[in-house]
Structures are given as structure tokens and as C-alpha cells.
Q: What sequence folds into this?
């Protein structure tokens, strides 16, 4: 997609007679999956809604909108974060990686994506982008070493389908392969 | 090689029966699989639902002026300005509706449950709709409501109309009352579970794409695209040609997507009225304003002789339903069906409360009823001084004890044995509180699980094209169950193709007719339908291959060839073969298409019952001071006929088991009966297991041949994993602590507050 430098949503001219005038858009710059984007966002728009509704990056999921499920996990400057809890304007200048940005440009999957498929670490797939981003963040943090620690530190990502044991297996697998390198 | 009785020709199984990765895996791990709220359209408007604040009464006024004044708001729909829809409530009845009058959103001023949608705000974007919704002012005239089942037990009634597809409680056998009185050893207790809401990770959503000229394409979160389609056509007076429902991916549902939810109605209504595309997504709070797993008051009484043979079984249930529908699920039947006993009675009654109608939730009825029954069996085992597994074996039955019918198969005995062995059950010290490590008490418990193995009439189409690709299609769904993958495996083996050359299409109302995806019947039904359609294609293809000039298989009949490696080869001499491409060329066609319908065998149904069974073994560790329970080890030995894909099948059971652990220890929709509302309507307060709650789960598939349950030998797996799990955990908690907890979930307060009885 080309650089965007326009209001993403139709602007609504505040009507003098109405008290419900909306706040102005605020310009921000985000690097999303390696691409620099100049954006105009409303102060009330979350990073999650910006990704999904304005940029059509629907890979990042909404499971609660309250920071309670982890479905919306993305990597912000390499750190895993719930994008529903971040107002987009507060992330001005940040680098955002979503599930769409994990595979190589030639389509080669990230090792964590491969491992999730191999271990059947999902069923409906709805929590999966969040789980995978979270797992990639977890590995980068470098704190989890045992399955017990993986379980604990992956507990911000709910999987209602109950794929937990397979998720842990997938992460352990990637960890072992990275350790072996 | 497996020869199924219904199919004349052998099938060489390359993929069926072997672990295969999900064919939709790549789409799911890259974020490319589109769910209902992720289809988009130019000029898409966003709807936000305003939820009602009282449990019962009337809306006296809705002031939408402030909301309408927000720039970007397109319309606010209420019962006062909604467009005309069907007048008869019958038009709102969907494929799986229980008897009664379905809820009609925005129909009139009456409020029948808390959280009922009272308005839909449609705006140019999501945040504006959400903000404007907060400005809608509703005033009510409240009436006295009742949401507490326990308060109205005296009003219990036997539902006058049985819900279609649900087996009602069996006829009484013998005289359970007299036999109970005469039994030297007996147990009798009351059991409760908590109301549970399905809470799939994807919130219910519908995107309606306005195609112009009154035609719409609907992306709905639904377990059966054709159920949504017929609901829309009936309610809005449209024809099937006007409405196409496409829902290729469903972010979990567990039953919440069987019936169309109210966002479907609202989104379609708004789109038709505004003549533009509209999306309505519910919030997590609103996921608590729809169907739920009903609580009820259950009583189980068991009588036995000192030799541990059951003399009397009695299981009574009074469950809640809404004021407008008589929801029914099979809850008490299992207690009669499972064990050999001459005197057995099971009854099921309803009481009306002011909530939404309960809904099928993963194995509806079975984990509820078997929690009570299998807890009672455990209690009885202690009274008799017999091992819990032995008690079940002592009363083992080879028939359906509820109706005397034969069973299509039952490898439950093997499941007990294999499960016990894997778990190390023989090392169990039967004395409660006898196993301890540090500050943790260790308990080992077990229970039996069962679920009906069903088949439902389902059609499928198979299309083979000259490039050697096969497409199989049916309007069923994949809610994480692996339907795409198993249909691909079946299609690939039927025509001897690699899986990469087979595409499964589902989740589209324009595809061959299928019921909702549920009840664990999809693999057996859609799987058989695909196999049948492929068989017809096979026969056609074989005809072309044999009729070829100098055909190397000219004298063979269908039973003498194998479809393997994209060839049709003689079984006796595989060097004599015709490739699929050559066969089609010889036939002068570039596609072979067939549609077939799988129908359950009436004769089999009349003579047999068919169930999946499981034996669940659990280890819990209980911190006595903190009252915290952890399930540290679980073995589920499942006998469910043929397993098409051991990998996705195992995941199905894992998911069911996690649901069972959740039912036992976590999940609880907490009502405030003063307000008539579930209060913990968010994922921070409505607890479901997270990764740290789940430890070792060992799934075993017990070898089970079944040639009658379905033509492809499949019995289904979606439900069985949850059934029995909660009971096994409660039994393990008793073994650990000596405390018999008869109310789920087993939370800290109950562990600390319950007296030891052993
Ligand atoms: S959607 Fe962000 S944590 Fe649930
Ligand atoms: S795969 Fe369905 S919620 Fe995790």
C-alpha cells in the first residue's frame, strides 16, 4: 500500500448548532510491519481499531476490548502489548508488528507460525494471532525457560478452545531450536 | 485398507486415520482467515447495540435525540421506528429453536430479560456509534422479576411440547422408590452447577454487505450458514436468492452459534432499511445477554446391595428456562442409560425465569447430569468400600439401559482399563486424605463420560476437474473442529489424490444442504456425504478409465482397482494403471460432478443406540490452607469409533477437557437476583482457564470398530471431552480432602467452607 497521508475516515464538520462536536484528528507516524505510515487519528481510537477498521489489518483480533484476553496482542517496538489498551495517538513514532508482518516477504512463515501449525496449537484460530505475537515477544524477553514458566508468562492470552498444552509444546519447540542454533 | 459396509469398493487410506496438519492452518497463523466482523464493504456503517437495564417491564420512553445529534450518526433504531418485519413469532423460529415463541429484537416496548437489546445506533464509524449509544436515554416501568430457579421450584412443570432432536427422559423401569427403600446401601443428594456463558473468543458479529436491488450477502458468526439464511428470509420476507450467508471461519462458538443471535437480526434490519452495508459487533458484556448453560436443581438417589450391584437409580432435575421458550436438553437420561439396574426413574421439569432462553453449550445436558450421577457413584463406592472403577464394572451394561436397545459399539470397558493403566490407578490409596506432598493434599478421582453418536441428513458435492483437482463442498461449518481438514482427507483418499489437490468448501448457504454444525454429528454426517459424492465421481471416472482404447484395466471391476497416487491401478498388478488425467481425456470431459445426500439408516436407528464413551482419570492437588485446587494430571480414554485425524481429534478432546476443568473449577455467571442480571460480564471476572491453569492432559483413543454408527465408522468427538471431566475432578477433590462438594464450580470458599465427611 502506498503511503497514506489523508484522514482515514470521513471528517464531520462540527455543526455550530450542535453541542456534540467531535475532536479533531491528530497526525501521527507509525511504522507498521516495516512500512512507515503517516496517519490522522481521532484521540479516542485504539491502536486495535486503527489496525482493524482503518488499515484493514484484521489479523489482530478483538476478544474483549478491555485488556482481559490477549487476542489483540501485537509487538510494539518488539514488546508484546494489548493493542486494545493503547490509544493510537500515544504510540506516535512506534514500530508495530502484527501477525501479518511475521512471515517473510516471500511467504516463508516465522518459526513460531510453523510450530503452531505442526503442534496443532489452535482450533478456531481466533486467539491465535495474539498467542503467536505473545509467544514471539516471550522468546525475546528471554525469561521463560521451563514449561511451567511458559505457561505462567503466556497466561495473558486466553484460548477458549483450550489449545494450551499444544501452545506450550509449540513454544518449547521453537525455544529448543533457537537454543540449538 | 478399510471396507465400510455401505461402500462396495475398498478405500486405500493414505490420509484418513493419519495425523494431518490443519488445511486452514496457514490462513489462521498468518491472520488471513476472515471471521464475521472482518469482511468489509465500501461505505460500511457500524451498528452498536444499546442494552436494556431492567429484567422485566416496559420501556416508557426512549430519547434518541442526543444520539442522533452526534455528527456521523446515521440512524437510531428502536421498537418505535423499526421497519416492519414478520408478524408471526413462528417466522423467527430457527432450525434448532426449542418450543415456544422466539425472542424478537426491538419488537415492542416489553422487556423480558436484563440486557435485552433496546436500540441500535448506526454511525459512520465504530467509535461514533459507541459514543452515541451512550447518549440514548431509556426510561422504564419495571415489574417484579424472578431469576432465581431455587425460588420457584414449586412451579415446576413437564414441558408440554418436547424439543425436537432431544431425547426426553426414559420411561421408568421397575419401582425405583420401593427398591431404594429396600436397598441396604444408599446415597441421596442434591447437586447444582453454575450458569455458564459460552464466551467464544470471537464476539458475536454480523457484517451485511448491501449488494443493491434488495440483495444482501451476510457474514454471520453462525454454526450453520443455512440456518441464518432461512431465519433472515422468514423474518424479513426475502427469498433465498436475495440472501447469501458466507461464514467460512467461526472464532469458536460451543453452541452459541447454533441459533442466530440478535446481532444478525439488527444488522440485516439496518442494512435493508438504510440500503447500505452494516456491521454489528457485540461487546464482551453483551455476550452475557444471550443463551447460557442452564443451572438446575438435581437430585440423585442410588441404592445398592452390599455386593455393589445397583438396585435403584433416581435422578430428578428442575431446570430454568425463559418465559418465552421451553429449552430442553438431555440431562438425566445418562444416569439410566449407563448402568445395569432394574429400577430406574429419571425426570426433568422446567421453571420459568426472567432470563434469555438457555442454549446448547458443549455437550448440552451431559456434563451437568453426569456430574451429579458420577459424583453419586463415587460416594456410593466409598460406602460400599469398593474401588470406583470396580463399581462401574460391576454394573456395566452392554445395552442401552434406557430403552433396552443394542449398542452399535461400546469399548468403555477397554477405556476404563487402558485409562487406569496409563494413569497408574492401581497405586491409588483409597483412603481420603491419604496422599500428601508438602502442603498439598493429592487426590485421584475418576468418572465416566458418554455422548450420543448421531448422524444428520447432510448433502455434499464433489467436483473433479481435468487438472486433477477435487473440490468437496457442503454448507456445514468448521468452528475449530477440523471439518475442513477431515473432509479434505476423505476426499483425497476417495480419489487417490494428495491433500494439496483437494479443496474443501464449507460455511456458505449456497452449498449443498447441511444442518447446523453441532452435537458431534458433523464428521459422521458431512464426512459420509463427501464420501458418497466422491464415490459417484469414482464410478464415473472408472467407467472412462476402463473404456479407454487398450485400457490396462479393461477387464477389472471397481473392487479390483485402487485409486492411489492420482492413478487407478489394478490391486493385483499396480503396474497396470490409468492416470486420472488420461481417464478424463478418454471420457472427453473436463469435469465430473456429483452431489449426494447422507441419510441416517432408519433400520439401524430403530434397533440400536449409539454413544461415544470415555473414562476420565484425574489428579488434583489441593492447598489446604488456601483452598486452591489444581488439576495436575488428567487421562481421558475415549472410545469414539474411527478417528479420521488423530491430530485434530486429540485437539478436540483437549478442548473439551479444558472446558470440563473450567466447569469444575472456574466458570460461573454470577446473578444478582435483585437486579435479575449476570454481574460478572467480562473476562476478568468470569473465569475461564488460562495457560497456567492447565497441566498434563493425556488423550487416549481406544480402538473401537463401529460399522453402524455411521457408514464411515465415525462417532464424533466435539462433546465427549467435557463429559465426565467435572465429575472426575470433584471426585478427586473428595479423595484429596474428604470434602464432598456438590455445587460447581469448586471454588476456594467451597473448599474451605465444606465439612469433611470422610
Ligand atoms: S481485545 Fe485486547 S485484551 Fe482482549
Ligand atoms: S483457538 Fe479458538 S480461542 Fe484459541
A:
Amino acid at each position: 500500500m502506498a503511503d497514506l497521508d489523508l484522514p482515514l475516515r470521513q471528517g464531520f464538520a462540527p455543526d455550530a448548532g450542535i453541542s456534540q462536536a467531535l475532536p479533531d484528528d491528530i497526525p501521527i507516524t507509525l511504522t507498521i510491519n516495516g512500512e512507515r505510515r503517516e496517519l490522522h487519528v481521532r484521540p479516542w481510537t485504539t491502536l486495535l481499531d486503527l489496525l482493524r477498521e482503518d488499515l484493514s489489518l484484521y489479523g489482530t483480533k478483538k476478544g474483549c476490548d478491555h485488556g482481559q484476553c490477549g487476542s489483540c496482542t501485537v509487538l510494539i517496538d518488539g514488546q508484546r502489548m494489548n493493542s486494545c489498551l493503547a490509544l493510537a495517538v500515544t504510540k506516535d513514532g512506534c514500530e508495530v508488528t502484527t501477525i501479518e508482518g511475521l512471515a517473510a516477504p516471500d511467504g516463508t512463515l516465522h518459526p513460531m507460525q510453523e510450530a503452531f501449525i505442526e503442534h496443532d496449537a489452535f482450533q478456531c484460530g481466533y486467539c491465535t494471532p495474539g498467542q503467536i505475537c505473545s509467544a514471539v515477544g516471550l522468546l525475546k524477553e528471554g525469561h521463560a525457560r521451563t514449561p511451567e514458566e511458559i505457561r505462567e508468562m503466556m497466561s495473558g492470552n486466553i484460548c477458549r478452545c483450550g489449545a494450551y498444552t499444544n501452545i506450550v509444546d509449540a513454544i518449547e519447540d521453537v525455544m529448543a531450536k533457537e537454543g540449538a542454533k | 485398507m478399510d471396507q465400510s459396509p455401505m461402500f462396495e469398493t475398498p478405500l486405500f487410506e493414505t490420509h484418513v486415520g493419519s495425523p494431518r496438519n490443519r488445511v486452514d492452518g496457514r490462513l489462521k497463523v498468518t491472520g488471513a482467515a476472515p471471521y464475521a466482523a472482518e469482511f468489509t464493504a465500501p461505505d460500511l456503517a457500524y451498528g452498536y447495540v444499546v442494552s436494556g437495564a431492567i429484567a422485566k417491564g416496559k420501556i416508557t420512553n426512549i430519547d434518541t435525540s442526543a444520539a442522533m445529534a452526534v455528527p456521523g450518526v446515521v440512524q437510531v433504531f428502536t421498537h418505535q421506528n423499526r421497519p416492519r418485519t414478520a408478524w408471526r413469532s413462528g417466522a423467527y423460529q430457527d432450525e434448532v429453536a426449542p418450543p415456544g415463541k422466539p425472542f424478537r429484537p426491538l419488537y415492542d416496548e416489553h422487556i423480558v430479560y436484563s440486557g435485552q437489546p433496546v436500540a441500535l445506533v448506526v454511525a459512520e464509524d465504530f467509535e461514533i456509534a459507541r459514543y452515541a449509544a451512550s447518549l440514548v436515554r431509556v426510561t422504564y416501568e419495571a415489574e417484579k422479576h424472578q431469576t432465581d430457579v431455587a425460588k420457584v421450584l414449586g412451579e415446576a412443570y413437564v414441558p408440554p411440547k418436547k424439543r425436537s432432536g432431544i431425547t426426553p427422559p426414559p420411561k421408568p423401569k421397575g419401582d425405583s422408590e420401593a427398591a431404594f427403600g429396600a436397598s441396604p446401601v444408599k446415597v441421596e443428594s442434591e447437586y447444582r452447577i453454575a450458569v455458564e456463558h459460552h464466551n467464544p473468543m470471537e464476539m458475536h458479529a454480523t457484517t451485511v454487505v448491501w449488494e443493491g436491488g434488495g440483495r444482501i450477502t451476510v457474514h454471520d458468526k453462525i454454526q450453520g450458514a443455512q440456518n441464518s439464511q432461512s431465519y433472515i428470509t422468514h423474518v424479513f420476507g426475502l427469498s433465498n436468492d436475495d440472501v447469501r450467508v458466507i461464514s467460512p471461519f467461526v472464532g469458536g462458538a460451543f453452541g452459541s452459534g447454533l441459533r442466530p443471535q440478535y446481532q444478525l437480526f439488527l444488522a440485516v434490519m439496518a442494512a435493508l432499511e438504510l440500503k447500505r452495508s452494516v456491521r454489528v459487533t457485540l461487546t464482551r458484556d453483551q455476550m452475557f445477554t444471550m443463551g447460557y448453560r442452564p443451572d438446575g436443581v438435581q437430585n440423585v438417589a442410588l441404592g445398592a446391595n452390599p455386593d455393589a450391584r445397583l438396585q435403584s437409580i433416581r435422578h430428578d432435575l428442575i431446570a430454568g428456562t425463559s418465559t418465552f421458550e421451553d429449552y430442553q436438553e438431555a440431562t438425566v437420561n445418562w444416569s439410566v442409560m449407563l448402568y445395569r439396574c432394574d429400577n430406574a426413574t429419571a425426570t426433568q421439569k422446567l421453571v420459568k425465569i426472567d432470563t434469555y432462553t438457555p442454549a446448547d453449550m458443549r455437550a448440552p445436558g451431559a456434563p451437568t447430569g453426569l456430574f451429579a450421577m458420577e459424583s453419586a457413584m463415587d460416594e456410593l463406592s466409598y460406602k460400599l468400600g469398593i474401588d470406583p472403577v470396580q463399581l462401574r464394572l460391576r454394573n456395566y451394561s452392554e445395552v442401552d439401559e434406557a430403552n433396552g436397545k443394542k449398542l452399535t459399539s461400546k469399548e468403555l470397558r477397554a477405556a476404563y482399563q487402558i485409562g487406569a493403566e496409563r494413569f497408574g490407578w492401581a497405586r491409588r490409596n483409597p483412603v481420603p486424605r491419604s496422599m500428601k506432598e508438602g502442603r498439598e493434599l493429592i487426590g485421584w478421582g475418576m468418572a465416566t463420560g458418554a455422548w450420543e453418536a448421531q448422524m444428520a441428513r447432510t448433502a455434499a458435492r464433489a467436483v473433479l476437474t481435468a487438472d486433477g483437482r477435487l473440490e468437496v463442498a457442503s454448507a456445514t461449518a468448521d468452528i475449530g473442529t477440523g471439518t475442513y481438514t477431515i473432509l479434505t482427507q476423505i476426499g483425497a483418499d476417495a480419489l487417490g489424490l494428495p491433500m494439496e489437490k483437494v479443496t474443501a468448501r464449507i460455511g456458505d448457504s449456497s452449498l449443498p444442504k447441511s444442518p447446523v454444525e453441532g452435537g458431534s454429528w458433523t464428521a459422521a454426517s458431512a464426512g459420509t456425504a463427501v464420501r458418497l459424492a466422491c464415490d459417484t465421481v469414482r464410478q464415473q471416472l472408472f467407467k472412462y478409465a476402463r473404456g479407454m482404447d487398450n485400457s490396462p484395466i479393461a477387464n477389472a471391476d471397481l473392487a479390483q482397482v485402487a485409486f492411489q497416487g492420482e492413478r487407478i491401478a489394478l490391486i493385483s498388478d499396480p503396474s497396470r494403471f490409468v492416470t486420472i488425467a488420461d481417464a478424463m481425456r478418454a471420457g472427453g470431459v473436463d469435469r465430473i460432478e456429483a452431489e449426494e445426500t447422507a441419510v441416517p439408516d432408519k433400520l439401524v436407528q430403530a434397533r440400536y443406540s449409539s454413544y461415544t464413551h470415555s473414562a476420565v482419570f484425574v489428579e488434583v492437588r489441593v492447598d489446604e490452607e488456601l483452598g486452591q485446587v489444581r488439576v495436575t494430571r488428567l487421562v481421558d480414554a475415549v472410545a469414539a469409533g474411527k478417528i479420521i485425524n488423530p491430530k485434530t481429534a486429540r485437539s478436540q478432546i483437549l478442548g473439551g477437557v479444558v472446558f470440563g476443568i473450567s466447569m469444575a473449577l472456574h466458570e460461573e455467571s454470577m446473578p444478582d437476583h435483585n437486579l435479575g442480571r449476570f454481574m460478572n460480564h467480562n473476562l476478568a471476572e468470569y473465569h475461564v482457564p488460562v495457560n497456567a491453569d492447565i497441566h498434563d492432559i493425556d488423550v487416549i483413543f481406544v480402538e473401537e470398530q463401529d460399522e453402524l454408527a455411521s457408514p464411515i465408522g465415525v462417532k464424533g468427538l466435539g462433546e465427549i471431552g467435557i463429559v465426565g471431566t467435572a465429575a472426575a475432578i470433584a471426585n478427586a477433590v473428595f479423595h484429596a480432602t474428604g470434602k464432598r462438594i456438590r455445587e460447581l464450580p469448586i471454588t476456594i470458599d467451597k473448599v474451605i467452607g465444606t465439612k469433611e465427611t470422610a
Notes: The CA atoms of residues 2 and 40 of chain A lie 15 Å apart.
